[in-house]
Amino acid sequence: MSRSHESPVPHRSPLRRRRGLSRLMASVAIAALGVTLASAPVAAEEVEAAEFTSYVAIGDSFTAGPMVQAQAQMPLLGCMQSSVNYPKRLAEELGIEDLTDVSCSGAVMNDLYEKQFDDTEPQLDALGPETDLVTVGISGNDFGFSEVLIECAKRSLTNPLGSPCSDYYGGELDERIDGLRGDLNQVYADIAERSPNATVLSIGYLQIMPESGGCWPSTPISRGDVPFVDQAQIRLNEMIAEVSQANGATFVDTFERGHDVCQGSSTRWVEGLIPEDGAPVHPNNLGMAATTDFIRSTLGVPSP
User: Fold this and answer.
1) pLDDT confidence of residue 192
2) Which pTM value belongs to this model?
3) Is 269 left (phi over 0), alpha (psi -120 to 50) or beta?
4) How far apart are CA 292 and CA 206, in angstroms?
5) Catalytic residue numbers?
6) pLDDT, tens digit (0-9, with 9 covering 90-100), for 50-65
7) How many helices (H) and strands (E) would you count in the chain?
8) So what's the pLDDT on residue 25?
């Protein structure tokens, strides 16, 4: 985390924070501060266990799973898609042989309509009338979470106990989120048009920061800014839920407290600034497994 084929989402200005992952990795390497950060016919309350035969996974790096164990593509190249990300896990657990995983690290909504790299096709081109299951995880890079986290990290150095990032952004992040509604609405409308019989699941973003406190300096967000960043993510997930559900998709809420970047390696679902299993501030193996569980539960499919 749906429209006409000839009307792609136009290129955006400040809201199109392109290639979030690659920028973030560069910032981590140079400054040691960066943090990388459908209209389905079945409504959320009506989803029942079902058999699927053709599954398309659409999304950004929170779907692709860069640097999570084995890579389906070479690390640091291309989409950095993991062989153990949640689409591949879900397909295996549900016995779906026809999986098309077009998720790609750094993807923004425009990449659903245009080539992100020379060797990738627009993500929505993978959809067809025969597609009966779609998962969508998009808009985090359009919002600019990587840029926000990097900015907050830099500002924390001069005021680790205050709220320099909140003071800097003010109400801008809320404006960014609201500004994404139109494009995201179009995404889900176009998915529904291309795959009218599919069950479409909108996947929320796993919790990144804790509710309060934080873990400066290992994840350098000032103590007063931890709630600010946390609430921004909550509002982003809420917007995604509202837009996707308005288009008939089912929102899968993966935001569960207690698994943020400040937790230990056996508990966290998202890696911190110095990752052990995955890219900085991205889902790890446990996060991918948890997301798979959330999706399977939403579909009413029992654990394998």
Assistant:
1) 98
2) 0.83
3) alpha
4) 12
5) 61, 282
6) 689 999 999 999 999 9
7) 10, 5
8) 39
